[in-house]
Amino acid sequence: MTTTPASIAQPGRNAPIGIFDSGVGGLSIWREVSSLLPSESIIYFADSANCPYGQREQTEVQAFSERIVRFLLEKKCKLIVVACNTATAMAIDHLRRNYPVSFVGIEPGVKPAALESRTGVIGILATAGTLKGRIFNETKARFASHVKIQMTEGTGLVEIVEQGKIGTPEAEILLRRYIEPMLAANIDKLVLGCTHYSFLADDIRKITQGRVALVEPNLAVAQRTKSLLNERELLRDGTPESQRYEFYSSGPIDSLSEMVRRIGAIGTVEMLQV
Q1: Rounded distance, CA 90 to CA 16, Å?
Q2: What is the spatial distance between Cα 68 and Cα 249, in angstroms, rounded to a whole number?
């Protein structure tokens, strides 16, 4: 890749939105963005060759994110959504300093969970990288000091989603290991701190049986994307029929193709090394 920040031309309003994640989890964000902005073209990149990001060092996540951003900018994306909690925590500050495009990040919904909790106890299921991140810890300190927090690393859950094991006994066993201790601690809100976990929502509800409300930031991210495009006068001129969806993976495309099919998206799916 030879693109440098200084050489990137500013795209116009009919350019696509870029969205990326460590894998297929960010398609939960894609689904909300495409629903809220049906006229917009979207390019999605899954870094499946390097997934998951949760246990990786910050320098690695920054390097992976930077390569993907360069690819999306070569595709003339007008705004980039970092649809990965870990990449937001570890890389978005670096990306914003170095690239002339607007970025929308994602963080666990600690604020609404803490403010709306009735029991005074909330659960957070997230990756290690997210729980260590500056954004998460600043938000927790600012808005959640008045509640008890049960934090758990969802080790193995990203792999469950990537391997298409949603709704399986294997998924339920692993989820119960993480969630049942939180239920015993009397949580009434469960914050899903990884976009992959959104695809396990039905499995989680089977375990919680209505005892807790799931808190996900997906719609808020889509709303922020729309707001930022409007502020920059970059909302697309076209009709919903004129948009285009493209999906890329840095690794084998089987998982991405299956999840694209599962969410009902129509677009081209390709494997591309970056």
Answers
A1: 25
A2: 10
Domain ranges within the chain, ordered by starting residue: 15-106+219-271, 110-216
Going by C-alpha positions, the residue among 27, 65, 71 that lies closest to residue 267 is 27
Active site residues: 84, 194
Cα separation of 141 and 136, whole Å?
Answer: 9
> How confident is the model over 241-266, as pLDDT tens digits?
778 999 999 998 999 999 999 998 88
DSSP labels, 167-193: TSHHHHHHHHHHHHHHHHTT-SEEEEE
Cα–Cα dist 133/75, whole Å:
29
For residue 238, the model assigns a pLDDT of 72
Consecutive H or E run containing 271: strand 268-271
What class is the 15-106+219-271 domain? alpha beta
Torsion of CA 140, 19, 127, 89, to 10 degrees: -50
Cα end-to-end span (Å), the chain: 8
Range with lowest mean pLDDT among 13-17, 195-199, 264-268: 264-268
* Residue that the structure tokens 């989680």 belong to: 204
pLDDT tens-digit readout, 135-159: 889 999 999 999 999 999 999 999 9
Domain 110-216 of CATH type 1.10.3980.10: no
> Which ranges of 75-191 does DSSP label H, i.e. alpha helix?
85-98, 110-116, 128-131, 134-143, 157-162, 169-184
Interior/surface letters 170-203, b for 16+ CB within 10 angstroms, e for the rest: ebbebbeebbeebbeeebbbbbbbbbbbbbbeeb
pTM metric for this prediction: 0.92
What single letter denotes the amino acid at residue 72? Answer: L
